[in-house]
């Protein structure tokens, strides 16, 4: 009995093991790791959920979310109104969680925003787990904290825009690829393909940008023969293609009478929606490429392109705070591992995240225009490289000053079900920084340990140099606006203390002093971006609902300063007095028509659809250029008493449908529906006695 009791873990140890299992951490996780991760996730939750009741609800997507919560047809096909007469101009996958939330909790703004908050926090947690398996606890904590405090991440996770879901799913795909490379198992590679396919449902072709990077990484670093690696990745790619195209194929084979007209297309073809309107037209001079309808100033952004796209005055403060550190880490992480086995996992991680960053930077630079919030997808790569780079530099620093230094505990394999575990394929446990150390000094049992001149004894300088570089770069990014200039002295002082402490280390320097200096240096790199991130809690510095960005940049901020008030936030189920009067008039005079009214473009329909779940015939879709309905279809609907009223606006170009309305319908006096003047909107009565 005594022997058995001694072999059992103590109650405290069992409790710690259970807690680590709940958080997905290995059983030998350092004592500080669990509370540190919990603190980071708490900060992320607070930042992303702040003011959720007045979240940046996108006017177009917000209307669709409420409609999608009202019926299966609108839900599956992304119908803009509850009847699903026309779809949104994107695939609906990113909005399915939002619609489910509104269906469960009711038409509240916070209900529509809740999935974005959850997705944002999950991304932070998942990145921590992935980076830990690659580079250890210290790197994982830095990566999670960096991602949490990236300004564009904070504002985007409080907005109903697809990029949040895209980022989460691609990070999950990166984690699956990492496991596939490490374990030589097929299931993680299949899982990677599934995640990429689901990411395609969120943001279409953008999800495929990581495919060439993942293919190269797998071919370079995965175990097995070259042919086996190629065949396995082709299988994973086939899975990604199948999952990516499942909605497109379903929409393609569904009779057009049984689904909405697909917005953004000239021929109601789902392939034109994906590969034309949301694909080729964004990179060519032909805005109607592959069946797309012509874009407008409201549907196509310009600017934020070219080689300096990531560091301009608008985009730079959103995401690029750790760009120099990330590039330095990616380069040195690969160069310093030259001569290691092809399957070296440390180098593989730098290749994967560095490739992710490079491919997105090149593609965004070549496009016709980008919203600043598009750059949120590169934030995980920057964060992972920052964490992995600082961990590598720290290991080199410690090894130079302490010949007896042992790297931090090696990452454990990610927890998984026993049924999916294949012991015969499990590689030998690895410690990336242990292998890095041994490659320079030899293994622990070699007598030559510490005798070589570590590349002239200069690698240890990378850690303080990286801190200085990152803080100087923060000063450069903040300089055009001097937005958080009061934080700059704090960042400089912390950097000076940290670098001085690291450079002045001697034989008698206590570990506590070294750790304190390192903590001060890391804090110095985070101070300024944290200031920009926290500023977005003020609506004045959170951008527009259609283009959420942090700080005193962008048109929304300049318009707010000019108009002396923060950007107006829209909401679900809270119509203005003007919209309420119009809805009351339409409801009172409705006599069994299928549609409450027809509107010129989505612009006129959005406030009504957010206020009330009713069928609305949206003529022209988002741009106003989509050829639906035709004049013949509109005339038939009026004749069949399916639609009576039409709302036109001077804010959008005239079309054949609007010309038909003006010539066949009677203008309704604005006073009839509670307005002194019609303003930019005019209501027409198309009733035929």
The order of strands across the largest sheet is 2-1-3-5-4
What sort of overall outline do the alpha carbons produce when their principal axes are compared? globular
Instruction: Outline the biggest β-sheet.
Output: 5 strands, mixed
> Which consecutive residue ranges, at least 5 long each, have pLDDT under 50?
1-13, 412-431, 434-456
Structural class computed from helices and strand pairing: mainly alpha
The strand count comes to 5
Oligomer: single chain
Question: Treating each run of at least 4 consecutive H or I residues as one helix, how many helices?
Answer: 27
The level of helicity is 40-55%
Question: Explain this structure to me?
Answer:
It contains 27 helices and five strands. It has 689 residues and is mostly helical. The protein has a five-stranded mixed sheet with strand order 2-1-3-5-4, with helices on both faces. Strand 1 (597-600), helix 25 and strand 2 (616-619) form a beta-alpha-beta unit.
Break the fold down into its secondary structure elements and pairings.
Layout: H1 2-7, H2 11-23, H3 33-49, H4 59-68, H5 72-77, H6 96-105, H7 109-135, H8 137-148, H9 151-156, H10 163-183, H11 186-203, H12 211-221, H13 226-253, H14 270-277, H15 316-319, H16 323-335, H17 345-366, H18 379-401, H19 432-441, H20 462-478, H21 488-503, H22 511-535, H23 555-563, H24 577-588, E1 597-600, H25 601-611, E2 616-619, H26 631-639, E3 645-649, H27 656-664, E4 666-667, E5 681-685
Parallel strand pairs: 1-2, 1-3
Antiparallel strand pairs: 3-5, 4-5
């Amino acid at each position: 009995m005594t022997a058995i009791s001694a072999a059992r873990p103590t109650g405290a140890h069992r409790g710690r093991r259970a807690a680590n299992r709940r958080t997905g951490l290995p059983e030998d996780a350092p004592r500080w790791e669990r509370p540190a991760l919990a603190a980071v996730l708490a900060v992320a939750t607070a930042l992303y959920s702040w003011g959720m009741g007045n979240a940046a609800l996108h006017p177009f997507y917000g209307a669709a979310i409420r409609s999608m919560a009202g019926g299966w047809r609108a839900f599956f096909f992304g119908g803009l109104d509850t009847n699903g007469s026309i779809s949104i101009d994107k695939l609906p996958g990113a909005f399915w969680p939002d619609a489910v939330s509104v269906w469960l909790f009711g038409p509240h703004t916070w209900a529509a925003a809740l999935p974005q908050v959850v997705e944002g926090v999950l991304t932070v947690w998942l990145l921590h787990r992935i980076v830990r398996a690659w580079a250890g606890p210290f790197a994982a904590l830095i990566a999670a904290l960096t991602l949490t405090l990236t300004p564009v991440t904070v504002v985007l996770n409080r907005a109903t825009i697809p990029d949040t879901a895209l980022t989460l799913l691609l990070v999950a795909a990166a984690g699956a690829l990492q496991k596939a490379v490490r374990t030589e198992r097929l299931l993680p590679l299949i899982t990677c393909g599934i995640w990429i396919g689901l990411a395609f449902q969120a943001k279409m072709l953008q999800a495929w940008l990581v495919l060439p990077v993942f293919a190269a990484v797998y071919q370079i670093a995965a175990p097995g023969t070259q042919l086996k690696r190629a065949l396995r990745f082709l299988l994973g790619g086939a899975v990604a293609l199948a999952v990516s195209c499942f909605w497109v194929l379903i929409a393609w084979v569904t009779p057009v009478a049984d689904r909405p007209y697909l917005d953004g297309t000239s021929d109601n073809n789902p392939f034109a929606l994906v590969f034309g309107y949301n694909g080729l037209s964004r990179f060519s001079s032909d805005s109607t490429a592959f069946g797309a309808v012509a874009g407008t100033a409201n549907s196509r952004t310009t600017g934020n392109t070219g080689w300096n796209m990531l560091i301009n005055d608008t985009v730079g403060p959103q995401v690029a705070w750790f760009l120099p550190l990330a590039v330095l880490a990616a380069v040195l992480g690969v160069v310093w591992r030259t001569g290691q086995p092809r399957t070296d996992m440390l180098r593989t991680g730098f290749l994967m995240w560095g490739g992710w960053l490079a491919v997105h930077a090149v593609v965004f630079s070549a496009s016709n225009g980008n919203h600043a919030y598009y750059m949120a997808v590169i934030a995980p790569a920057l964060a992972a490289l920052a964490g992995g780079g600082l961990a590598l530099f720290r290991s080199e620093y410690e090894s130079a000053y302490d010949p007896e230094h042992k790297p931090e505990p090696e990452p454990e394999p990610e927890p998984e079900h026993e049924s999916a575990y294949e012991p015969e394929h499990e590689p030998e446990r690895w410690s990336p920084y242990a292998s890095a150390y041994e490659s320079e000094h030899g293994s622990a049992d070699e007598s030559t340990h510490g005798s070589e001149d570590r590349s002239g004894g200069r690698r240890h300088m990378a850690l303080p140099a990286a801190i200085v570089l990152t803080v100087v770069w923060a000063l450069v990014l903040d300089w055009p606006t001097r937005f958080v200039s009061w934080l700059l002295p704090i960042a400089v002082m912390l950097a000076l203390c940290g670098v001085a402490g690291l450079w002045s280390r001697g034989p008698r320097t206590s570990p506590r002093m070294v750790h304190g200096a390192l903590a001060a240096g890391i804090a110095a790199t985070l101070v300024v971006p944290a200031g920009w991130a926290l500023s977005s809690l003020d609506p004045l510095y959170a951008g527009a609902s259609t283009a959420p960005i942090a700080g005193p940049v962008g048109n929304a901020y300049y318009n707010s300063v000019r108009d002396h008030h923060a950007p107006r936030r829209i909401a679900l189920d809270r119509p203005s007095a003007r919209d309420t009067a119009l809805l009351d008039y339409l409801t009172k005079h409705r006599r069994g028509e299928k549609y409450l009214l027809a509107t010129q473009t989505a612009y006129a329909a959005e406030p009504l659809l957010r206020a009330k779940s009713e069928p609305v015939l949206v003529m022209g879709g988002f741009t106003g250029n989509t050829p639906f309905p035709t004049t013949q279809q509109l005339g038939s609907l009026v004749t069949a008493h399916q639609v009576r009223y039409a709302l036109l606006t001077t804010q959008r170009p005239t079309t054949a449908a609007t010309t038909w309305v003006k010539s066949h319908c009677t203008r309704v006096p604005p006073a009839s529906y509670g307005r002194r003047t019609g303003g930019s909107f005019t209501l027409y009565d198309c009733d035929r006695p």
